[in-house]
Amino acid sequence: MTFEESASILNISSKNPTIDEIKNAYKKMAKKYHPDIYKEQDSNEKMAIINKAYETLKSSFE
User: What are the J domain coordinates in residue numbering (predicted)?
Assistant: First the structure.
């Protein structure tokens, strides 16, 4: 997953997001699509994609 794809998944429009922007976007998406809240069959898949996007973006700061 590329940086751009990850940013798109987390709805980040900035080309150079800060770590705080990434964390806030992740938390917002996690609250919306967490399997305990989002009761669709694909909730685990969506959350896995969100987690992967977050890890990809976060790794650019390490």
Answer: 5-62
Q: What is the pTM of this model?
A: 0.88
Distance CA 59, CA 62 (A): 5
For residue 55, what are the domain limits?
3-59
Q: What's the CATH number where 29 sits?
A: 1.10.287.110
Element (H, E) at 20: helix 19-33
Q: Per the structure, how many domains does the chain have? A: 1
> pLDDT tens-digit profile of 46-57?
999 999 999 999
Total count of residues recorded for the chain: 62
